[in-house]
Amino acid sequence: xxxxxxxxxxxxxxxxxxxxxxxxxxxxxxxxxxxxxxxxxxxxxxxxxxxxxxxxxxxxxxxxxxxxxxxxxxxxxxxxxxxxxxxxxxxxxxxxxxxxxxxxxxxxxxxxxxxxxxxxxxxxxxxxxxxxxxxxxxxxxxxxxxxxxxxxxxxxxxxxxxxxxxxxxxxxxxxxxxxxxxxxxxxxxxxxxxxxxxxxxxxxxxxxxxxxxxxxxxxxxxxxxxxxxxxxxxxxxxxxxxxxxxxxxxxxxxxxxxxxxxxxxxxxxxxxxxxxxxxxxxxxxxxxxxxxxxxxxxxxxxxxxxxxxxxxxxxxxxxxxxxxxxxxxxxxxxxxxxxxxxxxxxxxxxxxxxxxxxxxxxxxxxxxxxxxxxxxxxxxxxxxxxxxxxxxxxxxxxxxxxxxxxxxxxxxxxxxxxxxxxxxxxxxxxxxxxxxxxxxxxxxxxxxxxxxxxxxxxxxxxxxxxxxxxxxxxxxxxxxxxxxxxxxxxxxxxxxxxxxxxxxxxxxxxxxxxxxxxxxxxxxxxxxxxxxxxxxxxxxxxxxxxxxxxxxxxxxxxxxxxxxxxxxxxxxxxxxxxxxxxxxxxxxxxxxxxxxxxxxxxxxxxxxxxxxxxxxxxxxxxx
Amino acid sequence: xxxxxxxxxxxxxxxxxxxxxxxxxxxxxxxxxxxxxxxxxxxxxxxxxxxxxxxxxxxxxxxxxxxxxxxxxxxxxxxx
Lengths: 623, 80
Hints:
By secondary structure, chain A is of the alpha/beta class. In chain A, helix 17 packs across helix 18 and helix 25 (581-591) runs antiparallel to helix 26 (595-622). The radius of gyration of chain A is 28 Å and the shape is elongated. Helix content of chain A is 57%, strand content 7%. Chain A is built from 26 helices and ten strands. In chain A, strand 3 and strand 4 (59-63) form a beta hairpin. Chain A has a domain at 2-207: 3-Layer(aba) Sandwich (Rossmann fold), CATH 3.40.50.300. Chain B contains three helices and no strands. The N and C termini of chain B lie far apart (57 Å). Chain B has one domain (25-80). Chain B is mainly α.
């Protein structure tokens, strides 16, 4: 494919092995805020960003999934190869390749650089993490390496401000005059090729005077403890336990502040606006609905603070290693850990991350169980029900509410393992594909990354509350208000509305599992996203109240009107229920079939109903 | 009466926004591309097309999850 280049931005592709810092460099070059983490497999699709340059031409930077070679074994690696070879539909081949190499582990990255160089595309080598390399005693003669390789070699520290200035300087488009780019041809990887490549690599390392990093005995001792089959698992459980305790203990005060603020705002609205539909829309729809979800922001922030610290420190891949045997025994690939971990934030990136799993059956199993991981959208539902129904008491040194939250997260994980095991029985025995994972170095979490990551989560949560949740609450308020009740009505107005009638119908389906008509109504808009159910409950209860008894705070209303059995049944429902249309849409896209999202929705609804039924009956009999 | 008209407008806008956000990503991208093609022949809309429409097309083309930070693009980073 020949492409004429005019004055369009210079197309630059970032290529490198997984976890060498490509995305951090991409963010540095383009000012983007793409997710960065200290483990491989974070980027599974190509991402594009632009940078304006002084000559006006600009740069178009492509961040590609990490790969160890141009002979891919997984879907994400194939994307990298296809972009470089100009095979990806609608994407022109890059005019310049920046091969990002982790200076600490130079040989692994340099091998890929040699492969890329053979394609004949103009190339710059970015020697990333040079600060860590120097601290660990790595020596590289940059000038000699550049001379031998025949391309510019630029030391960078992508996570530090100004750490990529030299690279930015060399990427100025005037240094790379526009020319016709011919897509390079692929070549077969023969045994002779591989041997030649290895010989070239050894030669390069010798010329560059590469001295490998000093091993740190302390790191070795810590790793021996964290990766111990028994002690390591105990530490992992303790870490998760502390995390969930903190979610409840630390978030209580800021949640109370937001709650009081919402109640005051609602009171102010009703006091200062004339009675009528506008005041009702604001108080019952907007504030009671969207406001009741916003209350959970502190819990989301605390949960993600812990997750980001674990990600950045390099602990998570060690957890993956620990759990590999367990996951293998139930039929999950070791590579499923990162997708399942990502699903704790949201199932969508988790399902997309399954592209790193080469075997289709393993990938499908992981996709099917990913929604069972407790995503952050469930946290407001869990938080509301636990705060309303579980006393704020201690069990020994532990917070009881934190214990229940830990149990719910554990229930999600255990159910995912059980479902994977059942799927394995249906699919028949197959060869286990072991986890091959390069353990990253331990590092102190980078404060900038941490703050940026938290800021992104806050933005996502607040924009959802102010976007889709707010819009759905306004629609629900309308459905809960109209048609108006007849003049001789005796019950609350909502009972005569469209939503009330729908709730009465659905109650027949959900009564056996203990759900009242208010919950039944809330489950419908909750199909859009799980946390919408909390807002919907806020609106429905606010609309159900009569006269001055306006329910601005949902928690005490639930505490006084629901039985413990109903609350527990709803918690059990939410461990399984696939109430997220976006997730089902992504499953359809990733599997290229309606069959799998329909199977997923069917089995998750069935599990949710059975679990809620059993929970309701058992707790009812017990209390 | 004016309160009811105001509320009706808000509800209709909210319903339209909900449908937009909940529709499949591919359908949303198709609609954006159709809007782009329609506005391309109208010079008066050039500024709006560049500022408002193009970034949304880029985001919608990224993945099925345009609410994610993963699709947050910053196309015009300051030049050095």
